[in-house]
Amino acid sequence: MVDPSRVPLVEHGGEPPGRRSRGLLDLSLSTNPYGPPPYLPLALRRGEREVAAYPDRTQLELTRRLEQALRLAPGTVLLGGSASELLRIGITAFGTRRSVLVAPHTYGEYQRIAASVGSRVVPGPMPRLWIDPGEWAERVRPRSLIVLANPGTPTGQYLAPRALAPLVAAAERTRSLLLVDESYLPFVRGGESAAGSSDHLLTVFSWSKMLGTPGLPLGHATGSREVIRALRAHLLPWSVGPFARHLGLLALDRPAWTRTTLARTERTAAYVRQLLRFRSRTNYFLVHAPSGTELAERLAARGFRVRDLRSLGLGQYVRFAVRRAPETRAFLRVLARVAGEPRRSPPGWPGERRGRPPTRASAKG
To answer: What's the predicted TM-score (pTM) here?
Structure first.
């Protein structure tokens, strides 16, 4: 068995408050730029009344409300303290000492968790950072686990449920499980969840990305009753605390704020997409440079923090997420001065639109 202490830690975007760089606008964190929601103080006040008691381990009220909102059958949703916690128990429950098919350049926790539980990590084909579900389906081995971010991180590639069909079919044929991380799905205009489409499918979702509350995480997983029972056996007791519970309940009660802010974020992302011909379908984008580290340092010197992707094996790239429209426009002006016309990333991405960027565009929101 692998000693987990020997598995290296994974770098992430954002900085802890104690190390926050003064004066830097942080575009390394891909969350709702309008968050946290205005009802957060109310969630904290309501949660404060409950801190002297143990939370409900089953979180029945929020779970039932969520099943109704998602139109899923009872027993097919599991709440967790974060999407990362649910990803961990999903990989532990279904990937321990098994083959785990995962993208070579993606959220680093997938491979780290798999390695810590003695799994055999198999890199899925990712030519030019593009994922073809059909090619992945050919790599699926019997009783294995497939882990996929959708939309992809850090590429922003989105696979609609019909595009995932070959991989779902491969999981069913080989009695494997497809674990899809849909944490950034709310930022995809018209994005559809694959939840409920197969008994061999497990989806994981992060509320903190959508609500702009990474310091108060909440996550949920969806799957068949059998899969959810297996996950629940690994879930820590009292995983969801009172503050996160009330935040989730209020988010379900007051969806207008989420709809409005995500629409504004999408308009800004669409502006970036149109102006620079980027192909990402979500709120973050890759920029190619001779040295991603050098570009990140030059942008930091001008007041903007972006994500250096060396830890993902992408040393010639940085990733940035859109902020509110005026902030994003200011960043793009600096990016143009520092890097020239940014190269669309990765070069030659399949289906990439060609031609010069439009000379006029507007970002509203």
So the answer is: 0.90
